[in-house]
């Protein structure tokens, strides 16, 4: 791991995590009953997922590679850009109905969700969020592949400071461990 975490901060710091340092992985255990969602379809709002990131103000890129022992419905991990509880984008993997899905949730007051089945049983996933002007392009790669497959292109307010980093949550399960083997935030 080459990312310098000086100045990074937690939103909803988990009970258990170990900081990645040069050559080490960032390991985070998602607490039980944590989630990120706003209103749409379910009628509830949660802002309890774990986010570890640094502030960016303009164009930026967040790329992370991670793995986890997915087990419970909606276990999730990936990359995130967050302005506040009503404006954010998360993308990564979500375990739904017994299978891995590459997933993106875009929230501007209301959440919407995009999923694509992960082909095969991917051991590692790389997710890339590229903020360019008023757009975020979400790309991914499986098992060491470069994140070149586009999942989503979404509006994101330009020039507004946002926390950029990695996230995880366990909405229905008792929690699970995510190993982030690579994290890069550049602006």
Shape: globular
Question: The CATH topology is what?
Answer: Jelly Rolls
How many structural domains in the coordinates? 1
Which segments are poorly predicted (pLDDT under 50) over 5 or more consecutive residues? none
Instruction: Estimate what percentage of residues fall within beta strands.
Output: over 45%
**Can you summarize the main beta sheet?**
7 strands, antiparallel
Biggest sheet strand order reads 1-6-15-8-9-10-11
**Helical residue percent band:** under 10%
DSSP E strands, number: 16
Please give the CATH class.
Mainly Beta
Average of pLDDT: 93
Secondary structural class: mainly beta
* Rg calculated over all Cα atoms: 15 Å
- Count of helices? 0
CATH architecture: Sandwich
Q: What is the straight-line distance between the termini?
A: 18 Å
The helix-strand sequence is EEEEEEEEEEEEEEEE
């Amino acid at each position: 791991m080459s990312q310098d975490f000086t100045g990074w901060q937690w939103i909803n710091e988990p009970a258990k995590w170990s900081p990645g340092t040069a050559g080490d992985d960032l390991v985070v255990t998602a607490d039980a009953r944590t989630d990120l969602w706003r209103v749409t379809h379910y009628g509830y709002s949660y802002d309890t997922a774990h986010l570890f990131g640094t502030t960016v103000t303009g164009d930026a890129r967040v790329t992370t590679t991670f793995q986890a022992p997915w087990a419970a419905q909606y276990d999730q991990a990936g990359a995130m850009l967050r302005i506040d509880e009503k404006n954010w984008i998360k993308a990564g993997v979500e375990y739904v109905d017994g299978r891995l899905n590459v997933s993106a949730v875009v929230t501007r007051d209301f959440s919407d969700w995009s999923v694509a089945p992960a082909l095969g049983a991917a051991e590692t996933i790389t997710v890339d969020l590229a903020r360019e002007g008023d757009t975020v392009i979400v790309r991914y790669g499986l098992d060491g592949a470069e994140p070149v497959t586009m999942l989503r292109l979404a509006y994101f307010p330009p020039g507004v400071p946002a926390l950029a980093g990695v996230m995880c949550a366990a909405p229905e399960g008792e929690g699970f461990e995510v190993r982030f083997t690579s994290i890069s935030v550049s602006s």
